UniProtKB/TrEMBL annotation:
Domain of life of the source: Bacteria
Molecular function, one GO term: lyase activity
Reaction equations catalysed: 2 D-glyceraldehyde 3-phosphate = 4-(hydroxymethyl)-2-furancarboxaldehyde phosphate + phosphate + 2 H2O
Taxonomy of the source species: Bacteria, Pseudomonadati, Pseudomonadota, Alphaproteobacteria, Hyphomicrobiales
Membrane-crossing residue ranges in chain numbering: none
Function according to Swiss-Prot or TrEMBL: Catalyzes the formation of 4-(hydroxymethyl)-2-furancarboxaldehyde phosphate (4-HFC-P) from two molecules of glyceraldehyde-3-P (GA-3-P).
Stated name of the protein: (5-formylfuran-3-yl)methyl phosphate synthase
Active site: residue positions: K28 (schiff-base intermediate with substrate), K86 (proton acceptor)
Keywords: Lyase, Schiff base
UniProt EC number: 4.2.3.153
């Protein structure tokens, strides 16, 4: 089954996406970049509101690939109590140094590495996940004004990313300015997670307030394209999805 990830910036938005059927609540501040981090106080408030009903992920911000900066941010976010921490892999810096330190960090949260379809890199996602101890990898877009994931990668390229990660035992997520018409083609690639922000908002503007009707539409589309719920996901509301 492909799970519906909804990115929210506060507790009120978390409640809205839960009502729309979100499987994962992702904490992110859209005004701070592609993977902008919310404040620790917001994370705590959202965790209180969600109350273990669904898994919670959180981004650490658009960070330079500096081992000390990255590991401090990942550790601090994990210690807040989220289920999964998402780290964007940006061009430049010392990514392999980051992966090496992360691999020995040992946090209570799972780690997902986010690669950007509009920011090509020669870093191998599977090898990066192995080195860092990540449970999953994700495709997203860094420049939200430059179109969706499918404007930068073909379905064939995205499908190969999904298949290779699955063969390595990794969970896979897809996101990147996705709209309702992207749901069915991408579900056909069998990702574990499909993520949205802009499509859930008023006028499809990612920095705007959520539109409950838009949230419900995405929830229905993802649910209609899913398969039988996996037993491991049913077992506990906060079980790792990635």
């Amino acid at each position: 089954m492909t799970h519906f990830l909804a990115s929210v910036r506060n507790a009120a938005e978390a409640e809205c996406v839960l009502a729309a059927g979100a499987d994962i609540v992702d904490l992110k501040e859209p005004d701070e970049g592609a993977l902008g981090a919310v404040a620790p106080s917001v994370v705590r408030a959202c965790l209180r509101t969600i109350g273990g009903r669904k898994p919670v992920s959180a981004t650490v911000g658009d960070l330079p690939m500096n081992p000390a900066v990255v590991t401090d941010a990942v550790a601090a976010t994990a210690e807040l109590g989220v289920d999964t921490v998402k780290l964007g892999i940006l061009v430049g810096g010392d990514p392999w140094g980051c992966f090496e330190v992360l691999g020995s960090l040992g946090t209570p949260a799972d780690l997902v590495l986010v690669f950007f379809g509009d920011m090509p890199t020669d870093i191998d996602p599977v090898e990066a996940a192995r080195a860092s101890g990540a449970n999953g990898v994700m495709l997203d877009t860094a420049g939200k004004e430059r179109g969706s994931l499918t404007d930068h990668m073909t379905l064939g390229e995205i499908g190969r990313f999904v298949d290779r990660a699955h063969h390595a035992g990794l969970q896979v997520g897809l996101a990147g300015s996705l709209r309702p018409h992207h749901v069915q083609p991408l579900l056909g690639l069998r990702p574990d997670v499909i993520g949205f922000r802009g499509a859930l908002c008023e006028q499809s503007a990612r920095g705007s307030n959520l539109d409950p009707n838009a949230c419900a539409e995405i929830g229905r589309l993802v649910a209609a394209g899913g398969t039988a719920t996996e037993a491991r996901f049913e077992a506990h509301a906060t079980s790792a999805v990635w």
